[in-house]
User: What shape does this take?
Amino acid sequence: MAMLYEDNRKSGEAHSLTLNERKRLSVSGVQDVEAFDEESVILSTTGGALTVRGSGLKISKLSLDGGELLVEGRIDGMDYAGEHERSRGFLGRLLG
Assistant: This one.
């Protein structure tokens, strides 16, 4: 018997970032969280692969159905991976 999986996430939804006082980052258009710890959060978004760097980072809210993420802590930087970096996979990017 085949099992059906329904993905309620909206493809092509808008992607945006809102950073408040380098302490609170709101991200929309989130498709998946690939990895996270206190120093980085690696996301797949409708705008591309995004890495958030900082210290004391924690995910306060995550709704993949709604495509929303809230990260709190000290945000030091954010960058999007290019197509070449995305194709290398998570370990390739992590090991540089």
